[in-house]
């Protein structure tokens, strides 16, 4: 994809099959103790697929900012000391990520 100046724009696609049911998306940033997902992407934009015909597209830096605010301001802590909205998820619960409410992306 290119913008009006013909500069190359990169987009990372994330599909969250249960977001339409839960009202949250899971944004991965760590896998097996290493940075991954949002923490390592070099994409200019994130495209989040909620339904096959419904997507949210935003600048990657904006999504990172939203996730940082959730991590820093979420007062509730789990027994392991993580903010309440930091969860293990994905395949075999091997990914650490942030639960972001769909309404926080709009």
Strand count:
7
Class from secondary-structure proportions: alpha+beta
State the distance separating the first and last CA atoms. Answer: 23 Å
Order of helices and strands: EHEEEEHEE
Biggest sheet strand line-up: 3-2-7-6
Strand content: 35-45%
- Helical content (DSSP H or I, runs of 4+): 10-25%
Largest sheet: 4 strands, antiparallel
- Principal-axis shape equals globular
Any chance you could write out the topology, listing elements then pairs?
Blueprint: E1 11-15, H1 19-22, E2 24-31, E3 34-35, E4 45-51, E5 54-59, H2 60-73, E6 86-89, E7 95-101
Structure, described:
A 4-stranded antiparallel beta sheet has the order 3-2-7-6. The chain has helices spanning 19-22, 60-73, and strands at residues 11-15, 24-31, 34-35, 45-51, 54-59, 86-89, 95-101. The protein has one domain (11-105). Helices cover 17% and strands 37% of the residues.
Notable features of this structure?
about 110 residues, alpha+beta, four-stranded antiparallel sheet, 7 strands
Question: Would you kindly provide a brief summary of this structure?
Answer:
It contains two helices and seven strands. The chain has 106 residues and is of the alpha+beta class.
